[in-house]
Predict the structure.
Amino acid sequence: MDTRTDYSGQQTSCFCAKYQPLELSREQIAERIKETRSIQRRLDLKCKSTKGHHLFQCRLCKQLWQLSSAWNWGGQDYLFKVPDIEIPEWMESPYMSPADMMIYSASMKIYFEKNRLSDSNNLCKIENCVQNALLNNVLCKVHFIESLQKFGLLPQPPAGRLFDPYTLSI
Ligand SMILES: [Zn+2]
Ligand SMILES: [Zn+2]
């Protein structure tokens, strides 16, 4: 571990830089769950959200970390780095949990593997939408997926604030 101590015996460098953004894979999330306790020891708790997320900060470099539950891993907690944010903003909407993003993307991927969607030459019937409707459908891909989500036929996108480097594709 790259941790130096200065003459007063205080830590002068931290471990934050050695952690990359979590890849959305089962292995990486399981690995991070294991590391979480030792990461957390070096962080200060900033606040807790009503939704059960915790915001932590590194004492040395001030990097923010969020602690969330990984529901598909038995609800175990894990920490991941998040961008700077004001506390009230974070309280209103904590960051999206990468474990939730992973599960969401996986179920969408399965859906698209089973259902090959191609465009027709007609416009989507939703007002002001400029996309073409899907073949044998009146809706474009985005609006069709949204309607399946609304009726519970596909999972809803995870709650929370999306952040770099993640994107949520449907
Ligand atoms: Zn740090
Ligand atoms: Zn549309």
Observations:
- The chain has a mean pLDDT of 91.
- Residues 115-150 form one domain.
- The radius of gyration is 20 Å.
- The longest strand covers residues 64-70.
